[in-house]
Amino acid sequence: MARLYAAGDQAELLPLYPITLGTGHDQEARRRPQGAPFHHLFVVQKGTGCFDTPQGRFFLEEGTVAFIHKETPVHYHRQGECFQTGWITFDGPAVDSLSRYFSLPEFTFCQSPALLDRISQYYTLAKRGASPEALSGSLYDLLLSAFREMQTRNRSSHLDTAKAYMREHCHKSLSVGQIAQATGISPSLLYRLFHDREATTPVAYLQALRIRKAKQLLLQNPKIKIADLAQACGFEDCAYFCKVFKTQEHITPKAFLAKYSL
């Protein structure tokens, strides 16, 4: 294991500065109920680790890079026979502004060969005795890359969670606020995710799910009353249901039934 100490008192005046770096460590179990006094970029180099965090339990496999915000409670240990790790611990006032900019939770992770290469290059830079300013600048670039990758992974995960929740509960009365809360993000971020990745809004996506369900129920039960059908698909107002149905299908529910029922 190589362990490199990179920071001195003068370096702490910089917006970002590394504290310790390590690689090739046979990781023992760590329990930090109060978190660590500094931030971590944590690399699983071999095997699998189990991480218990305030957000839940995660199993991180080889090639995963995790960001652990300082003072975040965490307990990690190996899952299986091997758990080899590397890390960069760091601090500085720029960390919080960067994590807020990318809307990162206190514990997050991603897999990226390019990011692993960047971390390896950073180890080499530190080992060669680069100046505190050079290490600070390179750390900033590294965190930009890492946080951007993690943001992409988080947003894909959040969008998948939101869509799954909407599919499961589309028959209920749902607000965008409720969906966002169930997903663990703000309503504004939920709107942005649907706009950027689905080219639609959460409301439009939910309505499409409900109309799809309505068509299925119509074909399964041709004798169902339209008012009951609307209620079963999450619409409290029957007239509004018929309006949305016709807008999306260019046909009324009764005409749809007449056209497609056997």
Q: How would you sum up this structure, described in words?
A:
With 262 residues, the chain is an alpha+beta fold. It folds into two domains: 2-156, Regulatory protein AraC (Jelly Rolls, Sandwich), CATH 2.60.120; 204-260, Orthogonal Bundle (Arc Repressor Mutant, subunit A). The chain is built from nine helices and eight strands. Strand 4 and strand 5 (56-61) form a beta hairpin. Helix 3 (132-169) crosses helix 4 (176-183) and helix 6 packs across helix 9. The longest helix has 38 residues, at 132-169. The radius of gyration is 25 Å and the shape is elongated. The relative contact order is 0.10. The mean pLDDT is 91.
Task: Tag the structure with descriptive keywords.
262 residues; alpha+beta; Jelly Rolls; 8-stranded antiparallel sheet
Quick gist of this model?
Strands 1, 2, 3, 4, 5, 6, 7 and 8 form an 8-stranded antiparallel sheet that branches.
What are the segments in which pLDDT stays under 50 over at least 5 consecutive residues? none
What CATH architecture of the largest domain would you give? Sandwich
Question: What would CATH call the homologous superfamily of the largest domain?
Answer: Regulatory protein AraC
Radius of gyration: 25 Å
What portion of residues is helical? 40-55%
- Distance between the amino and carboxyl termini: 71 Å
Class by alpha and beta content: alpha+beta
What is the typical, i.e. mean, pLDDT?
91
What is the subunit arrangement here? single chain
Strand residue content: 25-35%
CATH topology of the largest domain: Jelly Rolls
Tally of discrete structural domains: 2
